[in-house]
Amino acid sequence: MFSKACEYGIKASTFIALQSLQQRRVSLKEIAAEIDSPVAFTAKILHQLAKSDILKSNKGPSGGFEIPKEKIDTIMLSHIVFAIDGNSIYEGCALGFDRCDANQPCPLHNKFVGIRDELKDMLNKTSLYELATGLEVGLTYLKR
Predict the structure, then answer these.
(1) What percent of the chain has pLDDT over 70?
(2) Does domain 4-136 correspond to CATH entry 1.10.8.60?
(3) Distance from C-alpha of 75 to C-alpha of 55, rounded to nearest angstrom
(4) Confidence of residue 142 (pLDDT cuts 50, 70, 90)
(5) Are 22 and 101 within 8 A, CB to CB?
(6) What's the whole-model pTM score?
(7) Under DSSP, is residue 38 helix (H, G, I), strand (E, B) or coil?
(8) Among the listed residues 11, 7, 5, 6, the one whose alpha carbon sits nearest the alpha carbon of residue 26
């Protein structure tokens, strides 16, 4: 459903949020290892997220990535998805057709519209804080 970049972006943001709640900055290599992603690919994703003001990048010996604590509960998954994939998840055709809408629907269009609306609602209502605290107390995980 999400692009691979978006999946890694959500995982990385969640990990960074958890570390930020514990007042810790994390390095690119540590993030890549935690989310099991290639370092170069992770760097591109983190750059997009920093450019979208979702996380902060600090250079130097005590540098790394962080999210200001007061901001973690205001960042919704929809912000991360939009920063990486744009609106394509809300507008794309379930069967991958270039054109699919109410006027020219694919065979799945009418069923898929409702699912897309529910997904959008969930992404708009789920905060990074919710995901990070689930990790913190051991209710969720980033690796299998």
Answers:
(1) 94
(2) no
(3) 10
(4) low
(5) no
(6) 0.89
(7) coil
(8) 11
